[in-house]
Structure formats: C-alpha cells, structure tokens
Amino acid sequence: MAQASFDNTDLADYKASGALEGKVAIVTGASSGIGQAVAIAYAKEGARVVIGYLDDEEGAEKTLDIIESYGGEARALGGDLGKSENCDALVNFALAEFGALDIVVNNAGFQYPQTSPLDISDEQMLKTFEIKAFAMFYLVRAALPHLKKGSRIINTASINAYRGHSDLIDYSGANGAMVAMTRSLARRLVREEIAVNGIAPGPIWTPLITKTFGDLNPDVASDFGEDVPAGRPGQPYELVKAYVFLADPQNSYMTGQFLHMNGGDYMST
C-alpha cells in the first residue's frame, strides 16, 4: 500500500558528511517532492542552494524554512522554466545571491495522463516537452558559461523513459529526450571535467501523483507502486543519497549515466 505522506522532515535523521561544503547548487522543482528533498540534503551537506519552482510559493517557503532550520542557506525564485528567459533569470539570480554556481539539478516536471493518444493535444505535447526536455536544455545552456572544472549537472528523468507508460506517452517521450541529451552533453563536456548524469526514479510518492493521477484513478493512494518488486512506492528522502553521490566532487570518473531508483524494477540499460 502506498504511503500517503509527502513529509520531507524524514531528512531530520539524514547524516551529512560535508560532501558539498562551499558549493552552490540550483535545484528545480524544489517546492515539494524529490526536488525539495534534494535541496534539503544538499544544504545539510554544506551547499548553498537556490530553489526553482513554478507557482507553489507556499511549498517553496517551506523548503526554505526547513533548510534554514538546519542552519543552511537558501534562496528561491519562481518562474516557468519551459521559457528560456526564466532559466537565464534563475542562473543570474544564483550568481547574484551566492557569486558562483557548481551544481545544476534539473528536476522540474509535470505529467498529464491520457488513456488514449487521441486525447493528447498539441498544447499538451508542447507543454510536457517544455517542462521536461526544453527546460533542462535551457538551464544547462544558461549555466554553462559559469560552470568550471568539477561542476556537476544532474537530470531527473523517469523509469518511463526506458519502459514506456501507456497513459503517459508524451511524458515518457520527454524523459527519453532528457536521457539522450544527458548522454550527449556528457560526451561534450567530459574533457572539461564537467560530469553530466541523472536519476531515473520509479514510483515515488509525491504530491505530483495525486495531482495528476487522482482523477484517473481515485484509488491511487492505495495502489500506487504496488506493482514493483518492493511492493510499495519510494519516498523522496530515499533518493537523496544518490543525488549527493552524483554531485560529490570526489565522484570524478562517472558521466553520461543514469541511476535507477525503482524498488527493484530493474532496467537492462
């Protein structure tokens, strides 16, 4: 049975090692769910964090409050990152607030389940790709002139990029584009010693699930994630060590890879 909880206070027990001391990170989609958990973990690891969010100002403020309660530093800026000018603004904001940029986590996303391909409108297709694939590219493009040797780019895709999903055709495609661009950027930037990797989560219990699947499946809170070997969805805090690992400057010989955090639903690549 799914755990109907979105509380990232579980990170109160997170044991930090100072892996990101002195680093500055941008984490998008950080007003809730995975992005919020990553932002909190990065702050506990010593990074100063800029969180990007779309319109959940209350959630963004909560993320800031949690980070500050642990003695961390964070700032927040809202905006639709599917528009390149907002990605430019987020990078400039990070530089103005903290004077540097070392880590970029592209985590923003949304999904619009449809039971038939015929119901996917032009507008939905464009919006899905804007939020996932376009925003990832725009933010990387804006950040690149300011990144240096040892910087890290980390992209949140999805298990659906690898196995597909019958009700998330456009979303699966947008995540597939993210995987391909991640690998291509990794090849381009490896000689500059900028690593580009990603996480491909399986079923993770976040507010996005009820927001997008609630109408399609009123029982989503009771059966989400039960089809994976673990028999349950993951929680955002269960992923954060992977994001820290990919951001750690000591992880210097890994690029172009995706970590599959999916409760045992193993991928072949």
From TrEMBL:
MF term (GO), any: oxidoreductase activity, acting on CH-OH group of donors
The family this protein is said to belong to: Belongs to the short-chain dehydrogenases/reductases (SDR) family.
Keywords attached to this entry: Oxidoreductase
Organism: Planococcus rifietoensis
Entry-linked PANTHER family: NADPH-DEPENDENT ALDEHYDE REDUCTASE 1, CHLOROPLASTIC (PTHR48107:SF16), NADPH-DEPENDENT ALDEHYDE REDUCTASE-LIKE PROTEIN, CHLOROPLASTIC-RELATED (PTHR48107)
InterPro entries membership: NAD(P)-bd_dom_sf (IPR036291), SDR_fam (IPR002347)
GO BP: bile acid metabolic process
Protein name stated in the entry: NAD(P)-dependent oxidoreductase
Pfam hit, one: adh_short_C2
